[in-house]
Amino acid sequence: MTAQPPTADSLLDRYDDLRALVVNCTLKRSPEVSNTQGLIDKSRAVMEAQGVQVDVVRAVDHDIATGVWPDMTEHGWESDEWPTLYERVIASDILVLAGPIWLGDNSSVMKQVIERLYACSALLNDRGQYAYYGRVGGCLITGNEDGVKHCAMNVLYSLQHLGYTIPPQADAGWVGEAGPGPSYLDPGSGGPQNDFTNRNTTFMAWNLMHLAAILKRADGIPAHGNQRAEWDAGARFDYPNPEHR
């Protein structure tokens, strides 16, 4: 009798206790059509089909101050919606940053969002670890010029440096003919039908769910060896400490 392959349920039980936040870093304000949103909708559909609660934020629709402090109203800015958005970030098991390519690089909005994530990276959780520990990150990139891998490299490096765990195949993207060519949602672009993009987007969504579920079942990343508060108090976690010989 041929053994049946394991199902998602038998591997990790469930995904319907997971929350995902996708930040669309398009330069276009709502309700203008965002090509990046078209690709977001593909990954969102995969996760929602498994019961994941998916929230999508278009960053440019919000009054996000420039800077690297958690709340820029404490540093001269009249308003800053980032503290409210940060609450949605920290409530999510999965974070996907999505955006377009401009001049071969991530959009200015993407860079601003990463800077504001960085602004909160020194905050600690209740175990003394950096606040983003125990969460997973990925990215989606669109454009009509080269640069998907360059942009993804920057985003994924930034997320892991801040404390996110990055699964395999954590990025996907689509670029049309070198510009000015059609964008992802333009008629005849071939973007929504592109098998390579659809495959990678699907793999990314599943790997984000798999790893987020694993971390959730394990109660996050083990705390030993990575607690900032303990290090500041003198613990060195088996690393030589000249003050405690």
Explain this structure to me?
It is a single chain. The protein is of the alpha/beta class and 245 residues long. The chain is built from seven helices and six strands, in the order αβαβαββαβαβαα. Strands 1, 2, 3, 4, 5 and 6 form a six-stranded mixed sheet that branches. α2 (35-49) links the parallel β1 and β2 (53-58). α2 (35-49) packs across α6. The relative contact order is 0.16.
Topology:
Layout: H1 8-12, E1 19-24, H2 35-49, E2 53-58, H3 82-90, E3 94-102, E4 105-106, H4 108-119, E5 136-143, H5 148-162, E6 171-175, H6 195-217, H7 228-232
Helix pairs in contact: 2-6
Overall shape = globular
Average the pLDDT over all residues and give the rounded result.
92
Order of helices and strands: HEHEHEEHEHEHH
Q: What share of residues is helical?
A: 25-40%
Q: Regions with pLDDT < 50 over 5+ consecutive residues?
A: none
What is the number of beta strands? 6
Radius of gyration: 19 Å
Largest sheet: 6 strands, mixed
Measured between the Cα atoms of the first and last residue, the distance is 63 Å
Strand content: 5-15%
Number of helices: 7
Class based on secondary structure composition and strand pairing: alpha/beta
